[in-house]
Amino acid sequence: MYDVEITRPLTLEAALRLLEEAPDGQVLAGGQTLIPTLKQRLAAPELLVSLGRIEDLRGVSHQPGMLVIGAATTHATVARDAAEAYPALAALAGGIGDPAVRNRGTIGGSLANNDPAACYPAAVLASGATIVTSAREIAAEEFFDGLFTTALDEGEIITAVRVPVPRAAAYLKFAQPASRFALAGVFVAVFDAGVRVAVTGAGDDGVFRWEEAEAALDRRFDPEALAPLALDEDAIMGDIHAGPAYRAHLVKLLTRRAVDELLRNAAPGALRG
């Protein structure tokens, strides 16, 4: 690694001012991606602006039909404090990485990095969440913009995520054993307006909604409704861990299993007919 200045402002305003004064500065959230990147000299900012001491960016608050999660809230805190209101989201957070990662990594850092195999993007996309920043509000549909790319402008900081709570939801992933990132992960959420299915770890362009599955499950919420469907393998990624055909198979299998889990465990009347 190389010499880099780290500053720990106490307010969002101070953090924004520091970034404006140092065009080469970068935001440091949990550091679970940025620190390894710096160690490999793939990035070389002169200044890191840590968000860890900004109290207003931490915590999970409950509003009618919605959770508001501060961007600097750790995965471990989401796993604990969202468990009652949104069990599927809490379970997702509790399955990220290992205890060290969960106690340092943050939801805002994960979303800003937009790793194509990260878990949170599937949750916020399936939930129809809104990403709140220092400048505006961005719908999840408009936020993710390809691999490791988002709609965030230079110097813009995620401050919170507003997550609507569905009637029922489930998240299943097939994890790469070493990293615990998803070779494929599927989040299924059931709202009054319909079913939403978001896929991570598999899309050639990052997280995406599987709209054909949503339409099939809207017609009949049953694993067998997915039987005739097949993902376009040309839009599925392949790497040393798994090829497109294998990932496409995993996505369909995980979606079927998520639907089956919901049918077995959801409260009566929670699911569409």
Detailed description of the structure:
By secondary structure, this protein is an alpha+beta fold. Among the domains are: 49 residues, Uridine Diphospho-n-acetylenolpyruvylglucosamine Reductase, domain 2 (2-Layer Sandwich), CATH 3.30.43.10; 98 residues, Enolase-like, domain 1, CATH 3.30.390.50. The protein contains 10 helices and 12 strands. The strands form 3 sheets. The chain has a 5-stranded antiparallel sheet.
In order across it, which strands form the biggest sheet? 4-5-8-6-7
- Rg, please? 19 Å
- Give the CA-CA distance, first to last residue: 56 Å
CATH first level of the domain at 168-265: which class? Alpha Beta
- Mean pLDDT figure: 93
Low-confidence stretches: none
What is the fourth-level CATH superfamily of the domain at 168-265? CO dehydrogenase flavoprotein, C-terminal domain
**Amount of beta strand:** 15-25%
Shape: globular
Query: What is the CATH architecture term of the domain at 168-265?
Result: 2-Layer Sandwich
Q: How much helix is in the residues? A: 25-40%
Major sheet: 5 strands, antiparallel
Count of distinct strands: 12
Number of helices: 10
Keywords:
alpha+beta, Enolase-like, domain 1, 5-stranded antiparallel sheet, 4-stranded antiparallel sheet, 10 helices, about 30% helix, about 20% strand
Task: Provide a brief overview of the structure.
The protein contains ten helices and twelve strands. With about 270 residues, the protein is an alpha+beta fold. It is globular and about 55 Å long.
